[in-house]
Design brief:
By secondary structure, the chain is of the alpha+beta class. The protein has helices at 16-23, 26-29, 63-71, 73-82, and strands at 2-10, 35-40, 54-60, 86-95. The radius of gyration is 14 Å and the shape is globular.
Length: 102
């Protein structure tokens, strides 16, 4: 499995609810997404440094599925529309065998 993590900060002029609405269209229109969660940071600021406003986590069967998602025309449209609405963003993709707690 491949986990795709997207973190972002909302630009001062942007509507965070509109960003969430647009992002949540992706699983309906782009095939291959196995799991999808999106939420606003709710913890208190701590010693961890600067915090992100929102986080999105989704899983794919393999890197080919992630690439299909990344290259999908609707995803590309969403990226173009949302990029000006972010003041910062970060992505991390990694492979994992299965989720477990030790």
């Amino acid at each position: 499995m491949i986990r795709h993590i997207f973190l972002y900060k909302v630009a001062p002029h942007a509507d965070p609810n509109e960003i969430v609405r647009i992002l949540n269209e992706l699983p309906k229109k782009v095939p291959g997404i196995r799991t999808w969660t999106l939420g606003k940071h709710t913890g208190e600021p701590g010693a961890s440094g600067d915090l992100w406003d929102y986080g999105l986590v989704c899983d794919f069967d393999d890197f080919k599925g992630l690439q299909t998602y990344s290259d999908h025309p609707f995803h590309m449209e969403v990226v173009e529309k949302l990029t000006p609405m972010f003041s910062a963003r970060a992505v991390c993709d990694y492979e994992f065998a299965n989720a477990s707690v030790k």
